[in-house]
Predict the 3D structure of the following.
Amino acid sequence: MSVSMSKEKAKIGSLRAKDIIITAIIVIICVVSILPLYVLIVNSTRAGQDITSNGVSLIPGLNLFKNIGTLQDWTSTGKVEYNALTGYVNSGIIALSTTFLTVLFSGMTAYGIVVYDFKLKNAAYTFILAVMMIPVQVTSVGFYQFMAKIGLTDSYIPLILPAIAAPAIVFFMRQSMKSTFPLEIVEAARIDGCGEYRTFFTIAIPMMKPAFAVQAIFAFVSNWNNYYMPSMILISRNKSQMTLPMMVNTILSNDKLADFGAKYAAIMLSIVPVVIVYLIFSKFIVEGVALGGVKE
Amino acid sequence: MANTSGKRVRSISYAKYGYLFILPFFVIYIVFQIYPLFNTFYLSTQSNGSTQTEFVGMDNFKALMIGENATISHGDNAGNKGGRAWRAANGDFKRVMGNTIMLWVGNFIPQILISLVLAAWFTNSLLKIKGKSVYKILMYLPNIITAASSAALFVMLFSGTEFGAINNLLLKWGWIHDPIPFVTGVSQSRVMIMIIQTWMWYGNTTIMLMSGIMGINGSFFEAASIDGATMTQQFFRITLPLLRPILLYTVVTSMIGGLQMFDMPYLYKNGTQITKHVETVAVYIYNHFHSAISPNYGYSAAASVLLFILTAILGAFAFAMNRDKDQKHLKRKKQNKLL
């Protein structure tokens, strides 16, 4: 009896030790993950000369506003093409309109495929599955040359309009509609004399809200973060048009600017909005990833 | 009676609406993706160095794959304007493909190893880990941050002068005597990009593998632990074999993602410095067409076509697996209905 008891106890004891060790390793990995961001935030509050004499510190300074002021001086004297407010507005316009178009039209396409029976239904869905994997880089030469030819470079149109066709998002919306949207509702709505579009807008969209929300969050974040497309299309680099990621990139190109505090502040300002959005929606996002809802 | 009226409603054809709902998607997709795709194919047979192109047949592919000895005359010096000199592509594809594969392998192996271990720990019911959801949120955080900002941050932290944060620290501790060129050095910058990519993606992979492991029937683990199997045994004998399809899918999709790797290799550099040793296929394509005055559409498009072929092969695998999943799902649903 007592032997087996002590054995059991030892087993429990060893499990506890294992729990502690494994938790410690996980915590260390998490700390390493966010350490660069922590150093970024700390350095954005430190005076430039402190950073040059001591690159890494865990204690914040008091110079955040001074650094942002320096940054503004650089902007107004034309030393950098970074202007956080313009960047927020430009990236915001692009990210919000692409998100709206992507979610609405992907929802419509998925709805069309799930709800209606028509000859090309399977062909359409197979097509969407097949093109889902085509990377944007493959078509971008042809896309860019086409846009240059019709004079749409330095315009937001090629950045926003293509969002209507997002195969991967149609795919995931179709999956969730298939499993959660009862087709009987459409029939019932028809009997009650509800038009097809009205059924989609007033019944399907409200019912599919969670799926739409997850896709909207991902679409917003990935469009906000997108460097490739805007830098490809906005070829003249007009200050008033540049998105935030493009502006951040210009911070590095002028190596004559010695105030590291201001440089860190510029990078910090560029990540604040996404980090806030992430922390608010992190639960949805992590769940969405688990469903395989992201593909980049 | 009710039945017949229901039938009458159904007998009205709603097919028209199906087409109307999917129409905007297809119109936009054809204009902004399919036409550009064919345009890319067309451009791959065109000349370089100017927006006015002429037919050159398969020369671009030859130049990219093998190299070219003959200097193709390209009119005046227009190609040198804007700092993007026209140059022959001497077997460039081998170099950039090599870089792409190296950077992908170098980030995927550590990433999948870390993610597998973490996913196994997170899903193990024998372990009591508190705060799992917080850890998951923190691990995914690097993935959500603007890649351009992450690149800028790492360039600042790892800058190659004694003022770079990490070099500064290492010098102060006396571990090194000269600053290490983390950004400009050939092997250093490659390793840094691998590390940054791992940092960005391991959280994503962990979460995906976790949902895969949670899909495994829990009774296997239960039975195994009753029979006295250790955690390690369970991992190698149950988790890994049953996770194989998902692992394979992760490898294939990650490879497709790896072929497109652009942001970090392009942005992790000092200003306008040219970084040939980390130039991936996607960066190569971009560098060549992205010029208002003298784009090398030909080389760029030819590289795109090669990239397209590789992606199509990998995509076919992923597609088949997706289809499979779909059909299995349907089968299971039907079975459930029958039951």
